[in-house]
Amino acid sequence: MDTPLNIVIVGGGTAGWSAAAAIAGVVSQNVATVRLIESEEIGTVGVGEATLPHMKEFNDHIGVIEADMMQQANATFKLGIEFVDWGYKGSSYIHPFGVHGQPLGGAMFHHQWVRSRLSGDESSLGDYSYPIMASRAAKFDFPSRDKNQVSSTYSYAYHFDAALYARYLRRFAERRGAMRTEGKVTDVSLDGESGDIASITLENGETVTADLFIDCTGFRALLIGDALGTDYQDWSKWLPCDRAVAVPCERQPGKLLPYTRATARDAGWQWRIPLQSRTGNGYVYASDFISEDEAAGTLLSSLDGEAQGDPRFLKFQAGRRVGSWQKNCVAIGLSSGFLEPLESTSIYLIQQAITTLLSFLPRKKIDPALRTEFNRLIDLEYDRVRDFLILHYYANTRDDADLWRYCRSMEVPDSLLEKLEFFRTSGHVETYRNGLFTPASWLAVYIGQGVMPERYDRQADKLPLDEMLGEIRKMKAQIAERVDRMPSHGVFVEDYCPSNDVPEAIAEAVE
Ligand SMILES: Cc1cc2nc3c(=O)[nH]c(=O)nc-3n(C[C@H](O)[C@H](O)[C@H](O)COP(=O)(O)OP(=O)(O)OC[C@H]3O[C@@H](n4cnc5c(N)ncnc54)[C@H](O)[C@@H]3O)c2cc1C
Fold it and tell me: Whose CA is closest to 194, among 312, 328, 4, 322?
Protein backbone atom coordinates (compact mmCIF):
# COMPACT_ATOMS: atom_id res chain seq x y z
CA MET A 1 0.00 0.00 0.00
CA ASP A 2 1.20 3.56 -0.81
CA THR A 3 2.35 5.77 2.05
CA PRO A 4 -0.09 8.61 2.76
CA LEU A 5 -0.06 11.63 0.48
CA ASN A 6 1.42 14.55 2.39
CA ILE A 7 -0.74 17.62 1.70
CA VAL A 8 0.19 21.14 2.81
CA ILE A 9 -2.36 23.94 2.50
CA VAL A 10 -1.06 27.50 2.64
CA GLY A 11 -3.78 29.94 3.79
CA GLY A 12 -6.55 29.75 6.35
CA GLY A 13 -9.46 31.68 4.86
CA THR A 14 -12.70 30.07 3.70
CA ALA A 15 -10.76 28.26 0.96
CA GLY A 16 -8.01 26.88 3.17
CA TRP A 17 -10.25 25.70 5.96
CA SER A 18 -12.88 24.30 3.57
CA ALA A 19 -10.11 22.23 1.94
CA ALA A 20 -8.69 21.09 5.27
CA ALA A 21 -12.14 20.19 6.64
CA ALA A 22 -13.05 18.24 3.53
CA ILE A 23 -9.81 16.28 3.36
CA ALA A 24 -9.82 15.53 7.09
CA GLY A 25 -13.58 14.78 7.06
CA VAL A 26 -13.64 12.48 4.04
CA VAL A 27 -10.20 10.98 3.44
CA SER A 28 -8.61 8.39 5.73
CA GLN A 29 -5.30 9.43 7.30
CA ASN A 30 -3.82 6.28 5.75
CA VAL A 31 -4.49 7.91 2.39
CA ALA A 32 -3.65 11.57 3.03
CA THR A 33 -2.48 13.77 5.87
CA VAL A 34 -3.17 17.49 5.94
CA ARG A 35 -1.32 20.42 7.47
CA LEU A 36 -2.47 24.03 7.10
CA ILE A 37 -0.17 27.02 7.45
CA GLU A 38 -1.69 30.45 7.96
CA SER A 39 -0.62 33.85 9.10
CA GLU A 40 -2.86 35.72 11.51
CA GLU A 41 -0.75 38.79 10.89
CA ILE A 42 -1.74 38.77 7.20
CA GLY A 43 -5.37 37.87 7.94
CA THR A 44 -8.13 36.86 5.53
CA VAL A 45 -10.15 38.82 2.98
CA GLY A 46 -12.97 38.92 5.56
CA VAL A 47 -15.92 39.04 3.14
CA GLY A 48 -17.92 36.27 1.40
CA GLU A 49 -21.12 35.81 3.32
CA ALA A 50 -23.73 34.76 0.77
CA THR A 51 -23.74 31.25 -0.67
CA LEU A 52 -25.44 28.90 -3.11
CA PRO A 53 -27.43 25.72 -2.36
CA HIS A 54 -24.49 23.47 -3.25
CA MET A 55 -22.94 24.44 0.06
CA LYS A 56 -25.49 22.27 1.86
CA GLU A 57 -24.39 19.28 -0.23
CA PHE A 58 -20.75 20.06 0.50
CA ASN A 59 -21.39 20.38 4.24
CA ASP A 60 -23.50 17.20 4.31
CA HIS A 61 -20.81 15.34 2.36
CA ILE A 62 -18.03 16.20 4.79
CA GLY A 63 -20.21 15.70 7.88
CA VAL A 64 -21.06 19.24 9.05
CA ILE A 65 -24.25 19.40 11.15
CA GLU A 66 -26.36 22.17 9.64
CA ALA A 67 -28.05 23.62 12.74
CA ASP A 68 -24.78 23.58 14.65
CA MET A 69 -22.90 25.38 11.88
CA MET A 70 -25.71 27.92 11.44
CA GLN A 71 -25.89 28.67 15.14
CA GLN A 72 -22.17 29.23 15.40
CA ALA A 73 -21.81 31.19 12.17
CA ASN A 74 -24.71 33.61 12.91
CA ALA A 75 -26.38 32.20 9.78
CA THR A 76 -29.74 32.69 8.12
CA PHE A 77 -31.40 30.90 5.20
CA LYS A 78 -31.26 32.13 1.63
CA LEU A 79 -33.84 31.36 -1.07
CA GLY A 80 -32.42 33.55 -3.82
CA ILE A 81 -31.13 36.98 -4.79
CA GLU A 82 -33.24 40.05 -5.46
CA PHE A 83 -31.97 42.31 -8.23
CA VAL A 84 -33.19 45.88 -7.89
CA ASP A 85 -32.81 48.46 -10.73
CA TRP A 86 -30.84 46.10 -12.99
CA GLY A 87 -32.70 45.77 -16.30
CA TYR A 88 -34.03 49.33 -15.88
CA LYS A 89 -34.39 51.73 -12.96
CA GLY A 90 -37.46 50.82 -10.92
CA SER A 91 -37.31 47.11 -11.83
CA SER A 92 -36.99 44.26 -9.34
CA TYR A 93 -36.81 40.51 -9.76
CA ILE A 94 -35.64 37.53 -7.76
CA HIS A 95 -33.34 34.82 -9.06
CA PRO A 96 -34.73 31.95 -6.95
CA PHE A 97 -33.12 28.65 -6.00
CA GLY A 98 -35.88 26.70 -7.69
CA VAL A 99 -38.06 26.32 -10.73
CA HIS A 100 -41.03 28.34 -11.95
CA GLY A 101 -44.28 26.38 -12.21
CA GLN A 102 -44.64 22.81 -13.39
CA PRO A 103 -44.64 21.39 -16.94
CA LEU A 104 -48.06 21.75 -18.50
CA GLY A 105 -49.73 20.35 -21.61
CA GLY A 106 -46.54 18.70 -22.88
CA ALA A 107 -44.32 21.80 -22.56
CA MET A 108 -42.04 23.34 -19.97
CA PHE A 109 -43.94 25.76 -17.79
CA HIS A 110 -42.21 28.91 -19.02
CA HIS A 111 -43.35 28.26 -22.59
CA GLN A 112 -46.95 28.33 -21.36
CA TRP A 113 -46.17 31.49 -19.45
CA VAL A 114 -44.71 33.17 -22.56
CA ARG A 115 -47.82 32.04 -24.41
CA SER A 116 -50.01 33.57 -21.71
CA ARG A 117 -48.11 36.88 -21.95
CA LEU A 118 -48.40 36.94 -25.73
CA SER A 119 -52.15 36.45 -25.26
CA GLY A 120 -52.34 39.53 -23.02
CA ASP A 121 -52.11 38.00 -19.52
CA GLU A 122 -50.01 40.20 -17.26
CA SER A 123 -48.95 38.00 -14.38
CA SER A 124 -45.22 37.94 -13.69
CA LEU A 125 -43.10 34.80 -13.94
CA GLY A 126 -42.20 35.18 -10.25
CA ASP A 127 -45.85 34.57 -9.24
CA TYR A 128 -45.30 30.91 -10.20
CA SER A 129 -42.20 30.36 -8.12
CA TYR A 130 -42.58 29.01 -4.61
CA PRO A 131 -39.22 30.35 -3.35
CA ILE A 132 -39.90 33.80 -4.80
CA MET A 133 -43.31 34.04 -3.14
CA ALA A 134 -41.80 32.78 0.13
CA SER A 135 -38.99 35.35 -0.15
CA ARG A 136 -41.41 38.19 -0.76
CA ALA A 137 -43.37 37.11 2.34
CA ALA A 138 -40.14 36.67 4.43
CA LYS A 139 -41.06 33.02 5.10
CA PHE A 140 -39.00 29.86 5.30
CA ASP A 141 -39.45 26.13 5.70
CA PHE A 142 -37.47 23.10 4.52
CA PRO A 143 -38.46 21.85 1.06
CA SER A 144 -40.97 18.98 1.07
CA ARG A 145 -39.53 15.55 0.28
CA ASP A 146 -42.72 14.71 -1.62
CA LYS A 147 -41.84 15.55 -5.23
CA ASN A 148 -45.57 15.94 -6.07
CA GLN A 149 -45.84 18.95 -3.81
CA VAL A 150 -45.18 22.47 -5.04
CA SER A 151 -43.27 22.97 -1.78
CA SER A 152 -40.62 20.57 -3.07
CA THR A 153 -39.64 22.80 -5.99
CA TYR A 154 -36.75 24.69 -4.41
CA SER A 155 -33.51 24.38 -2.49
CA TYR A 156 -31.80 26.81 -0.15
CA ALA A 157 -28.44 28.26 0.82
CA TYR A 158 -27.10 30.34 3.72
CA HIS A 159 -25.94 33.80 4.67
CA PHE A 160 -23.29 33.68 7.37
CA ASP A 161 -20.41 35.46 9.02
CA ALA A 162 -17.38 34.43 6.92
CA ALA A 163 -14.92 34.64 9.82
CA LEU A 164 -17.18 32.51 12.05
CA TYR A 165 -17.69 29.95 9.28
CA ALA A 166 -13.90 29.64 8.75
CA ARG A 167 -13.45 29.28 12.53
CA TYR A 168 -16.13 26.57 12.57
CA LEU A 169 -14.38 24.67 9.77
CA ARG A 170 -11.06 25.03 11.57
CA ARG A 171 -12.44 23.34 14.71
CA PHE A 172 -14.08 20.69 12.52
CA ALA A 173 -10.84 19.97 10.64
CA GLU A 174 -8.57 19.98 13.68
CA ARG A 175 -10.85 17.52 15.51
CA ARG A 176 -10.44 15.18 12.55
CA GLY A 177 -6.66 15.30 12.53
CA ALA A 178 -5.73 18.35 10.42
CA MET A 179 -2.60 20.05 11.79
CA ARG A 180 -2.36 23.85 11.93
CA THR A 181 0.81 25.94 11.92
CA GLU A 182 0.84 29.65 12.59
CA GLY A 183 3.47 31.22 10.37
CA LYS A 184 4.24 33.33 7.36
CA VAL A 185 5.61 31.71 4.21
CA THR A 186 8.57 33.80 3.06
CA ASP A 187 10.15 31.64 0.39
CA VAL A 188 9.21 28.94 -2.11
CA SER A 189 11.82 26.61 -3.68
CA LEU A 190 11.28 24.79 -6.95
CA ASP A 191 12.81 21.47 -7.94
CA GLY A 192 15.38 22.26 -10.63
CA GLU A 193 14.43 19.26 -12.74
CA SER A 194 10.67 18.83 -12.53
CA GLY A 195 9.73 22.44 -11.72
CA ASP A 196 7.56 21.12 -8.86
CA ILE A 197 7.43 23.00 -5.57
CA ALA A 198 10.16 21.32 -3.52
CA SER A 199 9.57 23.19 -0.26
CA ILE A 200 8.32 26.36 1.35
CA THR A 201 10.14 28.25 4.08
CA LEU A 202 8.48 29.98 7.01
CA GLU A 203 9.57 33.24 8.62
CA ASN A 204 10.97 31.29 11.60
CA GLY A 205 13.27 29.40 9.23
CA GLU A 206 11.37 26.10 9.17
CA THR A 207 11.35 24.34 5.80
CA VAL A 208 8.20 22.41 4.90
CA THR A 209 7.96 19.82 2.14
CA ALA A 210 4.86 18.14 0.70
CA ASP A 211 3.70 15.85 -2.09
CA LEU A 212 0.88 18.22 -2.93
CA PHE A 213 0.60 21.92 -2.06
CA ILE A 214 -2.76 23.67 -2.02
CA ASP A 215 -2.45 27.41 -2.58
CA CYS A 216 -5.17 29.16 -0.57
CA THR A 217 -3.25 32.40 -0.09
CA GLY A 218 -6.06 34.53 -1.53
CA PHE A 219 -5.32 37.35 -3.97
CA ARG A 220 -1.58 37.00 -3.13
CA ALA A 221 -1.43 33.67 -5.05
CA LEU A 222 1.96 33.00 -3.50
CA LEU A 223 2.52 29.54 -4.96
CA ILE A 224 0.47 29.35 -8.18
CA GLY A 225 1.26 32.92 -9.23
CA ASP A 226 4.50 34.19 -7.68
CA ALA A 227 6.38 30.88 -7.54
CA LEU A 228 5.02 28.98 -10.55
CA GLY A 229 4.23 32.01 -12.72
CA THR A 230 0.86 30.71 -13.92
CA ASP A 231 -0.85 33.24 -16.21
CA TYR A 232 -4.03 35.02 -15.23
CA GLN A 233 -6.74 35.54 -17.85
CA ASP A 234 -8.11 39.06 -17.42
CA TRP A 235 -11.88 39.39 -17.93
CA SER A 236 -12.28 42.98 -16.81
CA LYS A 237 -13.42 44.18 -20.25
CA TRP A 238 -16.61 42.19 -19.62
CA LEU A 239 -16.81 42.58 -15.86
CA PRO A 240 -15.49 46.08 -15.26
CA CYS A 241 -16.08 46.23 -11.49
CA ASP A 242 -12.65 46.09 -9.84
CA ARG A 243 -13.18 47.46 -6.32
CA ALA A 244 -15.47 47.02 -3.35
CA VAL A 245 -16.08 48.90 -0.16
CA ALA A 246 -17.72 46.91 2.63
CA VAL A 247 -19.17 47.64 6.05
CA PRO A 248 -21.60 45.76 8.30
CA CYS A 249 -24.44 47.63 9.98
CA GLU A 250 -26.84 47.01 12.84
CA ARG A 251 -29.76 44.82 11.99
CA GLN A 252 -33.04 46.63 12.27
CA PRO A 253 -35.91 45.01 14.16
CA GLY A 254 -38.51 43.53 11.83
CA LYS A 255 -38.70 40.85 9.20
CA LEU A 256 -35.62 38.70 8.67
CA LEU A 257 -35.41 38.42 4.88
CA PRO A 258 -34.47 35.03 3.39
CA TYR A 259 -32.65 36.48 0.38
CA THR A 260 -29.67 38.62 -0.61
CA ARG A 261 -30.40 41.98 -2.22
CA ALA A 262 -28.22 43.34 -5.05
CA THR A 263 -29.17 46.92 -5.92
CA ALA A 264 -27.68 48.41 -9.08
CA ARG A 265 -25.93 51.77 -8.54
CA ASP A 266 -24.47 54.23 -11.04
CA ALA A 267 -21.02 52.61 -11.05
CA GLY A 268 -21.76 49.05 -9.90
CA TRP A 269 -24.06 47.53 -7.34
CA GLN A 270 -24.62 47.23 -3.61
CA TRP A 271 -25.13 44.03 -1.64
CA ARG A 272 -27.21 43.56 1.48
CA ILE A 273 -26.86 40.27 3.34
CA PRO A 274 -29.11 39.66 6.35
CA LEU A 275 -27.47 37.74 9.19
CA GLN A 276 -29.12 37.06 12.54
CA SER A 277 -27.37 39.82 14.44
CA ARG A 278 -26.21 42.24 11.74
CA THR A 279 -26.48 43.10 8.07
CA GLY A 280 -23.53 42.78 5.69
CA ASN A 281 -23.22 45.57 3.10
CA GLY A 282 -20.87 46.42 0.30
CA TYR A 283 -20.65 48.46 -2.89
CA VAL A 284 -18.91 46.64 -5.75
CA TYR A 285 -17.87 49.30 -8.26
CA ALA A 286 -15.81 50.08 -11.34
CA SER A 287 -13.03 52.50 -10.47
CA ASP A 288 -13.13 53.95 -14.00
CA PHE A 289 -16.58 55.31 -13.22
CA ILE A 290 -16.48 56.49 -9.59
CA SER A 291 -13.92 57.56 -6.97
CA GLU A 292 -13.24 55.68 -3.75
CA ASP A 293 -14.73 58.52 -1.65
CA GLU A 294 -17.90 58.70 -3.72
CA ALA A 295 -18.36 54.92 -3.51
CA ALA A 296 -17.96 54.94 0.28
CA GLY A 297 -20.36 57.90 0.51
CA THR A 298 -22.99 56.06 -1.56
CA LEU A 299 -22.66 52.97 0.63
CA LEU A 300 -22.76 54.76 3.97
CA SER A 301 -25.76 56.88 2.99
CA SER A 302 -27.86 53.85 2.08
CA LEU A 303 -27.45 51.50 5.06
CA ASP A 304 -30.46 50.13 6.95
CA GLY A 305 -28.86 50.75 10.35
CA GLU A 306 -25.82 52.29 11.99
CA ALA A 307 -22.47 51.25 10.48
CA GLN A 308 -20.40 48.91 12.65
CA GLY A 309 -16.84 50.16 12.16
CA ASP A 310 -15.08 51.87 9.28
CA PRO A 311 -15.60 50.83 5.66
CA ARG A 312 -12.96 48.48 4.22
CA PHE A 313 -11.71 48.77 0.65
CA LEU A 314 -10.84 45.80 -1.56
CA LYS A 315 -9.27 45.62 -5.02
CA PHE A 316 -9.63 42.80 -7.52
CA GLN A 317 -9.48 41.89 -11.19
CA ALA A 318 -12.07 39.61 -12.77
CA GLY A 319 -10.53 36.52 -14.31
CA ARG A 320 -8.98 33.15 -13.64
CA ARG A 321 -5.70 31.29 -13.75
CA VAL A 322 -4.98 29.47 -16.95
CA GLY A 323 -5.22 26.08 -15.24
CA SER A 324 -5.40 26.20 -11.46
CA TRP A 325 -3.54 22.88 -10.99
CA GLN A 326 0.10 23.24 -12.08
CA LYS A 327 2.86 20.79 -11.21
CA ASN A 328 2.25 19.66 -7.60
CA CYS A 329 0.24 22.75 -6.67
CA VAL A 330 -3.54 23.27 -6.80
CA ALA A 331 -4.87 26.80 -6.36
CA ILE A 332 -8.23 27.00 -4.62
CA GLY A 333 -10.12 30.18 -3.76
CA LEU A 334 -9.09 33.70 -4.68
CA SER A 335 -5.62 32.50 -5.72
CA SER A 336 -7.26 30.59 -8.59
CA GLY A 337 -9.43 33.43 -9.84
CA PHE A 338 -12.14 35.87 -8.94
CA LEU A 339 -15.55 36.67 -10.29
CA GLU A 340 -17.39 39.41 -8.50
CA PRO A 341 -19.89 38.28 -5.84
CA LEU A 342 -23.06 39.20 -7.77
CA GLU A 343 -24.32 35.60 -7.78
CA SER A 344 -22.43 34.44 -4.65
CA THR A 345 -20.33 32.05 -6.70
CA SER A 346 -16.86 32.19 -5.10
CA ILE A 347 -17.43 29.78 -2.24
CA TYR A 348 -19.24 27.49 -4.66
CA LEU A 349 -16.13 27.54 -6.93
CA ILE A 350 -13.96 26.78 -3.90
CA GLN A 351 -16.03 23.82 -2.81
CA GLN A 352 -16.43 22.54 -6.35
CA ALA A 353 -12.64 22.58 -6.77
CA ILE A 354 -12.26 20.70 -3.48
CA THR A 355 -14.75 17.97 -4.34
CA THR A 356 -13.20 17.61 -7.80
CA LEU A 357 -9.74 17.35 -6.23
CA LEU A 358 -10.99 14.76 -3.75
CA SER A 359 -12.37 12.64 -6.54
CA PHE A 360 -9.06 12.98 -8.43
CA LEU A 361 -6.84 12.63 -5.36
CA PRO A 362 -3.42 11.77 -6.78
CA ARG A 363 -0.82 9.30 -5.59
CA LYS A 364 2.61 10.52 -4.59
CA LYS A 365 3.68 10.63 -8.21
CA ILE A 366 1.00 12.83 -9.76
CA ASP A 367 -0.62 11.48 -12.90
CA PRO A 368 -0.72 14.41 -15.38
CA ALA A 369 -4.05 13.15 -16.78
CA LEU A 370 -5.71 13.98 -13.43
CA ARG A 371 -4.35 17.52 -13.63
CA THR A 372 -5.56 18.01 -17.20
CA GLU A 373 -9.09 16.86 -16.44
CA PHE A 374 -9.25 18.88 -13.21
CA ASN A 375 -8.24 22.01 -15.11
CA ARG A 376 -10.75 21.36 -17.87
CA LEU A 377 -13.61 21.01 -15.40
CA ILE A 378 -12.66 23.96 -13.21
CA ASP A 379 -11.98 26.25 -16.21
CA LEU A 380 -15.43 25.34 -17.47
CA GLU A 381 -16.98 26.24 -14.09
CA TYR A 382 -15.38 29.68 -14.25
CA ASP A 383 -16.40 30.23 -17.86
CA ARG A 384 -20.04 29.36 -17.16
CA VAL A 385 -20.21 31.72 -14.20
CA ARG A 386 -18.49 34.46 -16.23
CA ASP A 387 -21.16 34.35 -18.98
CA PHE A 388 -23.99 34.32 -16.44
CA LEU A 389 -22.59 37.38 -14.65
CA ILE A 390 -22.01 39.28 -17.89
CA LEU A 391 -25.66 38.73 -18.81
CA HIS A 392 -26.75 40.86 -15.81
CA TYR A 393 -24.70 43.81 -17.08
CA TYR A 394 -25.18 43.41 -20.81
CA ALA A 395 -28.96 42.95 -20.89
CA ASN A 396 -29.85 46.38 -19.51
CA THR A 397 -31.82 49.27 -20.96
CA ARG A 398 -30.52 51.92 -18.53
CA ASP A 399 -29.47 55.20 -20.05
CA ASP A 400 -28.79 57.09 -16.85
CA ALA A 401 -25.13 56.25 -16.13
CA ASP A 402 -21.94 55.66 -18.13
CA LEU A 403 -21.23 52.20 -16.70
CA TRP A 404 -24.58 50.88 -17.86
CA ARG A 405 -24.21 52.45 -21.30
CA TYR A 406 -20.77 50.87 -21.61
CA CYS A 407 -22.06 47.44 -20.59
CA ARG A 408 -24.98 47.57 -23.00
CA SER A 409 -22.71 48.17 -25.94
CA MET A 410 -19.67 46.03 -25.02
CA GLU A 411 -18.71 42.99 -27.06
CA VAL A 412 -19.54 39.86 -25.08
CA PRO A 413 -18.25 36.29 -25.47
CA ASP A 414 -19.79 34.31 -28.35
CA SER A 415 -20.79 31.60 -25.87
CA LEU A 416 -23.16 34.13 -24.25
CA LEU A 417 -24.41 35.67 -27.49
CA GLU A 418 -25.39 32.24 -28.78
CA LYS A 419 -27.37 31.45 -25.63
CA LEU A 420 -29.13 34.81 -25.73
CA GLU A 421 -30.02 34.50 -29.39
CA PHE A 422 -31.36 30.97 -28.90
CA PHE A 423 -33.59 32.16 -26.06
CA ARG A 424 -34.76 35.34 -27.77
CA THR A 425 -35.79 33.63 -30.97
CA SER A 426 -37.15 30.31 -29.68
CA GLY A 427 -37.94 30.62 -25.97
CA HIS A 428 -35.62 27.68 -25.28
CA VAL A 429 -32.87 27.85 -22.67
CA GLU A 430 -29.59 26.16 -23.56
CA THR A 431 -28.79 23.23 -21.27
CA TYR A 432 -25.37 21.85 -20.36
CA ARG A 433 -24.10 19.00 -18.29
CA ASN A 434 -21.07 20.49 -16.48
CA GLY A 435 -20.96 23.79 -14.71
CA LEU A 436 -23.09 26.05 -12.62
CA PHE A 437 -26.56 27.45 -13.31
CA THR A 438 -29.49 25.42 -14.46
CA PRO A 439 -31.95 26.53 -17.13
CA ALA A 440 -34.22 27.78 -14.29
CA SER A 441 -31.53 30.26 -13.25
CA TRP A 442 -30.86 31.47 -16.79
CA LEU A 443 -34.60 31.86 -17.32
CA ALA A 444 -35.03 33.95 -14.15
CA VAL A 445 -32.26 36.32 -15.19
CA TYR A 446 -33.28 36.56 -18.87
CA ILE A 447 -36.83 37.49 -17.97
CA GLY A 448 -35.77 39.61 -14.98
CA GLN A 449 -33.41 41.65 -17.17
CA GLY A 450 -36.16 42.14 -19.74
CA VAL A 451 -35.12 39.61 -22.41
CA MET A 452 -38.50 38.38 -23.67
CA PRO A 453 -38.60 35.54 -26.21
CA GLU A 454 -40.44 36.12 -29.46
CA ARG A 455 -41.74 32.55 -29.61
CA TYR A 456 -42.40 29.49 -27.48
CA ASP A 457 -42.32 25.72 -27.86
CA ARG A 458 -44.98 24.75 -30.43
CA GLN A 459 -45.95 21.74 -28.31
CA ALA A 460 -47.47 24.18 -25.79
CA ASP A 461 -50.35 24.89 -28.20
CA LYS A 462 -51.76 21.41 -27.75
CA LEU A 463 -53.57 22.62 -24.65
CA PRO A 464 -56.39 25.06 -25.51
CA LEU A 465 -55.50 28.60 -24.40
CA ASP A 466 -58.41 29.05 -21.96
CA GLU A 467 -57.71 25.74 -20.34
CA MET A 468 -54.01 26.59 -20.00
CA LEU A 469 -54.79 29.99 -18.47
CA GLY A 470 -57.12 28.33 -15.99
CA GLU A 471 -54.43 25.81 -15.03
CA ILE A 472 -51.69 28.37 -14.48
CA ARG A 473 -54.00 30.54 -12.39
CA LYS A 474 -54.70 27.49 -10.23
CA MET A 475 -50.92 26.95 -9.87
CA LYS A 476 -50.44 30.52 -8.75
CA ALA A 477 -53.23 30.30 -6.19
CA GLN A 478 -51.88 27.01 -4.85
CA ILE A 479 -48.43 28.53 -4.32
CA ALA A 480 -49.88 31.59 -2.58
CA GLU A 481 -51.99 29.37 -0.33
CA ARG A 482 -49.04 27.11 0.63
CA VAL A 483 -46.73 30.07 1.25
CA ASP A 484 -49.34 31.60 3.50
CA ARG A 485 -49.05 28.58 5.80
CA MET A 486 -45.24 28.71 6.06
CA PRO A 487 -43.58 30.00 9.23
CA SER A 488 -41.80 33.33 9.08
CA HIS A 489 -38.08 33.09 8.41
CA GLY A 490 -37.30 34.90 11.68
CA VAL A 491 -39.30 32.45 13.79
CA PHE A 492 -37.87 29.47 11.93
CA VAL A 493 -34.28 30.60 12.50
CA GLU A 494 -34.94 31.40 16.14
CA ASP A 495 -36.29 27.88 16.71
CA TYR A 496 -33.75 25.99 14.62
CA CYS A 497 -30.39 27.70 15.01
CA PRO A 498 -30.48 30.79 17.26
CA SER A 499 -27.11 32.52 17.10
CA ASN A 500 -25.28 33.12 20.35
CA ASP A 501 -24.50 36.51 18.87
CA VAL A 502 -28.04 37.92 18.72
CA PRO A 503 -28.71 40.74 21.17
CA GLU A 504 -31.90 40.10 23.13
CA ALA A 505 -33.71 43.17 21.85
CA ILE A 506 -33.23 42.00 18.27
CA ALA A 507 -34.22 38.42 19.06
CA GLU A 508 -37.51 39.69 20.44
CA ALA A 509 -38.10 41.78 17.37
CA VAL A 510 -37.72 38.76 15.07
CA GLU A 511 -41.41 38.01 14.73
C1 LIG B 1 -15.90 42.23 -2.12
C2 LIG B 1 -16.03 40.74 -2.07
C3 LIG B 1 -17.25 40.16 -1.71
C4 LIG B 1 -17.39 38.77 -1.69
N5 LIG B 1 -18.60 38.20 -1.41
C6 LIG B 1 -18.77 36.87 -1.56
C7 LIG B 1 -20.03 36.24 -1.35
O8 LIG B 1 -21.01 36.88 -0.98
N9 LIG B 1 -20.11 34.91 -1.54
C10 LIG B 1 -19.04 34.16 -1.92
O11 LIG B 1 -19.20 32.95 -2.13
N12 LIG B 1 -17.84 34.72 -2.06
C13 LIG B 1 -17.67 36.03 -1.90
N14 LIG B 1 -16.44 36.59 -2.05
C15 LIG B 1 -15.28 35.72 -2.25
C16 LIG B 1 -14.88 35.15 -0.90
O17 LIG B 1 -14.62 36.19 0.02
C18 LIG B 1 -13.66 34.28 -1.04
O19 LIG B 1 -13.85 33.38 -2.08
C20 LIG B 1 -13.43 33.50 0.22
O21 LIG B 1 -13.38 34.33 1.33
C22 LIG B 1 -12.15 32.70 0.13
O23 LIG B 1 -11.01 33.50 0.24
P24 LIG B 1 -9.62 32.75 0.32
O25 LIG B 1 -9.66 31.79 1.42
O26 LIG B 1 -9.28 32.29 -1.04
O27 LIG B 1 -8.62 33.97 0.65
P28 LIG B 1 -8.37 34.78 2.01
O29 LIG B 1 -9.58 34.89 2.84
O30 LIG B 1 -7.72 36.05 1.58
O31 LIG B 1 -7.33 33.90 2.81
C32 LIG B 1 -5.96 33.90 2.46
C33 LIG B 1 -5.20 33.17 3.54
O34 LIG B 1 -3.86 33.05 3.13
C35 LIG B 1 -3.02 33.41 4.19
N36 LIG B 1 -1.75 33.86 3.63
C37 LIG B 1 -1.52 34.74 2.64
N38 LIG B 1 -0.20 34.89 2.44
C39 LIG B 1 0.41 34.09 3.33
C40 LIG B 1 1.76 33.80 3.63
N41 LIG B 1 2.76 34.41 3.00
N42 LIG B 1 2.04 32.91 4.60
C43 LIG B 1 1.04 32.31 5.29
N44 LIG B 1 -0.26 32.53 5.05
C45 LIG B 1 -0.57 33.42 4.09
C46 LIG B 1 -3.80 34.50 4.90
O47 LIG B 1 -3.32 34.68 6.21
C48 LIG B 1 -5.18 33.89 4.88
O49 LIG B 1 -5.32 32.96 5.91
C50 LIG B 1 -16.28 37.97 -2.03
C51 LIG B 1 -15.04 38.56 -2.32
C52 LIG B 1 -14.91 39.92 -2.35
C53 LIG B 1 -13.58 40.53 -2.70
Answer: 328
